Amino acid sequence: MAAEPVSNELIFYLPRDVARILKCSEWWVKEQARRRRIPFCWVGGGYRFTPDHIAEIARLFEHKATPAEVIPIEAHRAQRKRPRRDPSAPTAQLTARPPPRARHAQDTGKPTDT
Predict the structure, then answer these.
(1) Which structural domain, as residue segments, surrounds residue 20?
(2) Is residue 39 part of a domain?
(3) Is residue 90 part of a domain?
(4) Residue 78: alpha-carbon gap to chain centroid
(5) Amino acid 28: pLDDT
(6) Full-prediction pTM beyond 0.85?
(7) Could you give the CA distance from residue 114 to residue 109 in angstroms, rounded to a whole number?
(8) Position 73 in a domain
(9) How far is CA 43 from CA 50, 70, 77, in A?
(10) What is the structure's pLDDT at 70?
């Protein structure tokens, strides 16, 4: 009977590796670990993560839609539409403000440099 090779090696990932895998920032990974929101190991004075930790992080931050949250696309698009403006309705005429230097000159009565 041949012995099967068994790997008892633990694989540890650094926060930068986890950030790359999860497509987030290294700061976010460290901050979540510091606040004890995600699982980690403290080895050698730093955060270390196993493949099981990474899978658990993904499960912790997973959002599953409930039937009440599912909205048909047509209804979603209808909610986002703005009401049409009546083209015959009067519009407000906008005028530009004079620049600050001109406003200051009007207040003091001095002519402006142009």
Answers:
(1) 15-60
(2) yes
(3) no
(4) 26
(5) 96
(6) no
(7) 15
(8) no
(9) 12, 43, 50
(10) 67
Read off φ and ψ for residue 43, nearest 5 degrees: -125, 130
Q: How far is CA 51 from the centre of its chain?
A: 24
Number of structural domains found in the chain? 1
Mean pLDDT in consecutive groups of 10 residues from the start of the chain, 114 residues: 62 96 96 96 95 96 78 63 76 86 78 58
pLDDT for residue 113: 59
73/80 Cα distance (integer angstroms):
11
CA 77 vs CA 64, 68, 84, 102: distances in Å: 21, 17, 15, 47
The pLDDT assigned to 49 comes to: 97
- Measured CA to CA, the distance from residue 32 to residue 39 in angstroms comes to 9
Pair of tokens at residue 16 = 């930068």
Residue at 53 is within a domain: yes
Q: Which long-range contacts (CB under 8 A, 24 or more apart) does 31-38 make?
A: 32/57
